[in-house]
Amino acid sequence: MTVLPQSPGEIPAAFVAAWAVRDTGALAALFASDAGFVNVVGIWWEDRAAIEGVHDHALTRFFAQSRPVLGPVKPRRIGEGVAVIRAKMRLSGQLAPDGAEAPARGTILSFVAEKTARGWRLLSAQNTDIVSGAETQLASATGLRPQDYGRS
Fold first, then answer.
1. Which of 42, 97, 114, 141 has its CA at 20 to 30 Å from residue 74's CA atom?
2. Do strands 105-115 and 82-92 pair parallel, antiparallel, or not at all (unpaired)?
3. Which residue, 141, 86, 140, is CA-closest to 113?
4. How far apart are CA 118 and CA 99, in angstroms?
5. How far is 97 from 117, CA to CA, in rounded Å?
6. Each residue's pLDDT tens digit in the chain (152 positions)?
């Protein structure tokens, strides 16, 4: 039986620790059975089993050598037994399709969690890439590209 985090602020460390050792069972156990997860390109998984399956696929292939480093964590309780948690993560070691190591990248993980009798469990997660020097994505016929509008 997995031990759940006992405070909302412990959730990102538990997520990153499970990722670092490729323990997709422990990673998935952080989530409620009907939790959702949206990844950096907008793919949405709608239950714990799907979250575990996709992370198992990724962590044994293109993230097999990845090294996550947790940055600042900002938990905020938004009601009795509910919290939103944001955390920065730096990820290195991702493999490109040709097998070469891609440059490191930064992301922001956003979580919504609820307090249960056993600890804090995730209801929702979203992973967002940090794109320096851009304000938004701009769609074109060839796809999305980061765009800066030069705020004054």
1. 42
2. antiparallel
3. 86
4. 41
5. 43
6. 678 999 999 999 999 999 999 999 999 999 999 999 999 999 999 999 999 999 999 999 999 999 999 999 999 999 999 999 999 999 999 999 999 999 999 999 999 999 999 999 999 999 999 999 999 999 999 999 999 998 75
The encoded tokens of residue 116 equal 């249960």
Judge contact between 122 and 35, C-beta under 8 A.
yes
Measured in Å, how far apart are the chain's first and last C-alpha atoms? 53
**Which residue blocks in the chain are alpha helix, DSSP H?**
11-20, 24-29, 48-59
Residue from 9, 31, 7 nearest 18 by CA: 31
The answer to whether 71 and 87 have CB atoms below 8 angstroms apart is yes
Residues 88 and 71 sit within 8 Å (Cβ to Cβ): yes
* Per-residue model confidence (pLDDT) at position 140: 95
Q: Look-up: residue for tokens 């939790």? A: 35
Please give the Cα distance from 18 to 70 (Å, whole number). Answer: 12
- Count of helices and strands (H, E) across the chain: 3, 8
